[in-house]
């Protein structure tokens, strides 16, 4: 998954797509953002002790402007950065992504999730197969 694809799904979810499923998916994103920020070694980072967990500002910004694609992509980038830094978070995001399959099917183009690179030095891939930088 890449930031634009994930952003499109987030935009659809915050915009009310899929009714009850969309509401559950939005709650799931909020739950992900509220997770403590962890480093690869599993220790909580100092950012986890602040008043708003990493991504809280992006989440609130998208919720306040549910049609703003740039805000959706900003939240997506933050989620993907956290997934790259924390394997447990990455697994939780991948699980959320699978739950969002019905929303992805309603989007134009090929929105299948790509293979995830996690700590093995392998890049993520776009759905088209091109590596992300």
Task: Give a brief rundown of this model.
The protein is mainly α. It contains 6 helices and no strands.
Summarize the structure in words.
The chain has helices at residues 3-14, 19-34, 56-64, 69-85, 87-99, 101-105. The longest helix has 17 residues, at 69-85. The two termini are 13 Å apart. Helix 2 runs antiparallel to helix 5 (87-99) and helix 3 packs antiparallel against helix 4 (69-85). It has 133 residues and is mainly α. The protein has 6 helices and no strands. Mean pLDDT is 77; it is low at 46-52 and 110-133.
How would you summarize the topology of this molecule?
Elements: H1 3-14, H2 19-34, H3 56-64, H4 69-85, H5 87-99, H6 101-105
Helix pairs in contact: 1-2, 1-4, 2-5, 3-4, 4-5
SS class? mainly alpha
Query: What's the structural domain tally?
Result: 1
* Shape designation: globular
Poorly predicted tracts of residues: 46-52, 110-133
What value does the average pLDDT take? 77
Major sheet size, sense and barrel closure? none
Treating each run of at least 4 consecutive H or I residues as one helix, how many helices? 6
Share of β-strand residues: under 5%
Number of strands: 0
Percent of residues in helices = 40-55%
**Roughly how many Å is the radius of gyration?**
14 Å
Secondary-structure element order, N to C: HHHHHH
How far from one another are the termini? Answer: 13 Å
């Amino acid at each position: 998954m890449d930031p634009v694809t994930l952003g499109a799904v987030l935009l659809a979810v915050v915009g009310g797509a899929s009714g009850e499923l969309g509401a559950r998916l939005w709650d799931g994103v909020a739950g992900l953002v509220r997770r403590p920020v962890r480093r690869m070694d599993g220790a909580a980072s100092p950012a986890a002790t602040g008043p708003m967990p990493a991504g809280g500002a992006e989440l609130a910004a998208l919720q306040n402007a549910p049609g703003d694609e740039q805000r959706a992509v900003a939240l997506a980038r933050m989620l993907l950065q956290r997934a790259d830094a924390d394997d447990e978070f990455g697994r939780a995001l991948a699980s959320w992504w699978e739950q969002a399959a019905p929303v992805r099917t309603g989007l134009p183009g090929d929105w299948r999730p790509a293979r995830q690179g996690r700590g093995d030095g392998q890049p993520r891939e776009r759905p088209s197969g091109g590596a992300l930088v």
